[in-house]
Amino acid sequence: METFSRENENLINYMNFIIIRFARGFKMLIPNAFRYLDQYGGLTFLYNNYDYEHTQSEHNTCMTLLQVCRKNGGWL
Fold first, then answer.
1. What is the CA 75 to chain-centroid distance, rounded?
2. Contact between 14 and 54 (Cβ < 8 Å)
3. What is the pTM of this model?
4. What does the alpha-carbon distance between residue 40 and residue 42 come to, in Å, rounded to a whole number?
5. How far apart are the C-alpha atoms of 75 and 48, rounded to whole Å?
6. What is the dihedral of CA 60, 63, 68, 74, to 10 degrees?
7. Residue 19: which residues within 8 A CB-CB, separation 6 or more?
8. pLDDT in tens, 6-32
């Protein structure tokens, strides 16, 4: 069984946490929030900007993801 580095574990845990918070904040099911963020570039943005975003509040990160997704055609 392959194990993840501590850095990768932190990234995965953080992304899961933010997806759940995004879903709750916008009254979405978690799978729907995941698909929305994936389709409109939110997950890529979060992955590429993890070093900065994980230092921000969950609210600010969710609002940033909302803006990124809207810029890429999202409807929320």
1. 16
2. yes
3. 0.91
4. 6
5. 22
6. 160
7. 30, 33, 34, 37, 43
8. 888 999 999 999 999 999 999 999 999
